[in-house]
Amino acid sequence: LVVLGLETSCDETAASVVRLTPDGAATVLSSVVHSQIDDHAAYGGVVPEIAARSHVEMIAGVTARAMAEAGVGYDGLDGVAATAGPGLVGGVMVGLSFGKAVALARDLPLVAVNHLEGHAVSARLGRPVDYPFLLLLVSGGHCQLLEVRGIGDMTRLGTTIDDAAGEAFDKIAKALGLGYPGGPALERLAEGGDGGRFDLPRALLGRKDCDFSFSGLKTAASRLAHACETDRDRADLADAVQGAIARQLADRSDRAMKAYAERHDHRLLVVAGGVAANRTVRATLEAAAARNGFAFLAPPMAWCTDNAAMIALAGAERLQKGWISDIDAAARPRWPLDEARALSDPAHK
Ligand code: ATP
Ligand code: MG
Ligand code: FE
C-alpha cells in the first residue's frame, strides 16, 4: 500500500508518501516538513490564526514536493491520510479539506487520522517494530503512557493532570529568556550547567498511578529563572529543570512498565513526540527501561517532532484493515486516542 499523508494540526505543514508492505515494513518514500517557527517566533508561541493562514498558503506546494520526491505519481497511490485532530481546528481543517479534495479528484479512499496515533506508530517508520508495546508520548500538548496493542487499539494508562512536558519545557525556557520553541534551546543551555544546586518540586514521585504533573515545577522554575543573574545561573537552572522533567517521566514510566509487564511478555518501551528528541530524557528513560528488563526504542529525531510520514503510516495501517473514513469526516479539535477507532471502524460506531 502506498499512502499520501498530510499533517497540519499545529505549526508544521507536512506531506509524505509511505509504502507499507503486508508484513508491516514501512518505507518513507518522501517527507516534506515546512516549519512555521519563523512566523510565530515574534509572539513567543503559536498563534492559531497565523498558523491556519500559513497552512493554506503552503499545503499545495508541500504536497506537490512530497509527490515529486516520492516519484510514484497520483496513480500510484492507494489512499490519502490526513490528520483530523486533535489540534488547532483552523489548521486541521486545511489539511483535512485538502486531503478530501485529493481523495475525490483521484477517487482514492480517505483516512482521517488521529495525530496522536501518528506519534504512536512513528517508531515503526523505517524499521520493523512488533505490537504490542508500551508508549510514552511526550509532545507539546500531550504527556501520556499508552498500552499500544495495534492500530486503533490503545489504552491510556496515565496522562498529565495539568501541563504537558513540552509545555513545561517551553514555558520555563521563555522565563529563561530563550526563544520558541523552548525545548531544544533549553537543552543547549543546559549543556554547560550543573543543576545540583537547585531543589525543584518532585511532583507525584513514587505515586502508584501513572499520571504526570508539571505545573508545580513550571511555577517554581519560572520564579527561579527571573531571579537568575548570570549565564552560569541560567545554565545550572536549565540543567536542573531538564533533569527534573526526565526523572518524572522515568518514574511514571517505571510504574507503567510494572503494570504492563503483568499483561505482556513483549517488553518494549517506546518514546515518541517532540520531547523524545531530548538526550537527557532518552538516557534517563533508557536506564529505567533496562532496570525493568524492557528494551527501549526512540525514533530518529525527524520522526519525533511533527511530520506527515507518521500520519501516512497510521493511515496505511488503517487502510490495511479496511478502515476507511467518510468523505465528510469532521475536524476534531479534541479527540482522545482511546476513541480513535470509532471514527473509521464500522464495527465500533
Ligand atoms: P501535540 O503532538 O501534543 O499536538 P506538538 O505536535 O506541537 O504537540 P511535537 O511537535 O511533537 O508537539 O513536539 C513539540 C514539543 O517538543 C515542544 O514543546 C518542544 O519544546 C519540544 N521539544 C522539541 N525538541 C526538544 C528537546 N530537544 N528537548 C526538550 N523538548 C523538546
Ligand atoms: Mg510543532
Ligand atoms: Fe505532535
Automatic annotation (TrEMBL):
Fe cation binds at residues 115, 119, 306. Its EC number is 2.3.1.234. Residues 338-348 have a biased composition (Basic and acidic residues). It catalyses: L-threonylcarbamoyladenylate + adenosine(37) in tRNA = N(6)-L-threonylcarbamoyladenosine(37) in tRNA + AMP + H(+). GO terms for cellular component: cytoplasm. It is found in: Cytoplasm. Belongs to the KAE1 / TsaD family. HAMAP family: TsaD. This is tRNA N6-adenosine threonylcarbamoyltransferase. It comes from Brevundimonas basaltis.
